[in-house]
Amino acid sequence: MSDLTVFPTHLQFMHRRFPRSVGKGGITDHKVEGDGATPRGTHRIVGMFYRPDRITPPAPWAMPIGPRDLWSDASGQADYNHHVRAPYPYSHEKLRRADPLYDLVLVTDWNWPDAEAGKGSAIFIHRWRKPGHPTEGCIGLRPADLRWIAERVTPASRLIVR
């Protein structure tokens, strides 16, 4: 069983339960850029990024995060909700952060690859800030749980948000 399923109280993967956080806007059927909500539905895992200066690669298909790696949240741009590199003149998130939030990131296919303007971007699975602390729309996990999952998840895995 390679699916990750988000339930009201936990995330389940490979018959194990993990505490998790969701977006501060809750779970929604109508995701909008900046609403802080986690989109309900079935999303494929389409990528994995990691900080090679902080952790070892969790899987052979994981891509290292470098100083120029960004994620576009510039709604209306052709590369909205895609990995981009600096210099990038439009709105974006840095993947290489000073804090450890994005040291390991699983990328979902929410509004990707053919992104619709305003439907939300950067819906990832990453470490949480602290237990129970909401995200900006992603799924947050304890660092050790995220690592355990990343070592076992495949590009065929799905994130199911109920």
Tell me what you see in this structure:
- The chain is mainly β.
- It contains one helix and 15 strands.
- The strands form three sheets. Strands 1, 2, 3, 4, 7, 8, 12, 13, 14 and 15 form a ten-stranded mixed beta sheet that branches.
- A hairpin with a 2-residue loop joins strand 2 and strand 3 (16-18).
- The longest helix is centred in the last third of the chain and has 8 residues, at 143-150.
- The two termini are 17 Å apart.
Question: What secondary-structure arrangement, pairings included, does this model have?
Answer:
Layout: E1 4-6, E2 11-13, E3 16-18, E4 20-21, E5 27-28, E6 38-39, E7 41-50, E8 63-64, E9 69-72, E10 83-85, E11 92-94, E12 104-108, E13 124-127, E14 139-141, H1 143-150, E15 158-161
Parallel strand pairs: 1-15, 5-6, 7-8, 13-14
Antiparallel strand pairs: 1-2, 2-3, 4-14, 7-12, 7-15, 9-10, 9-11, 12-13
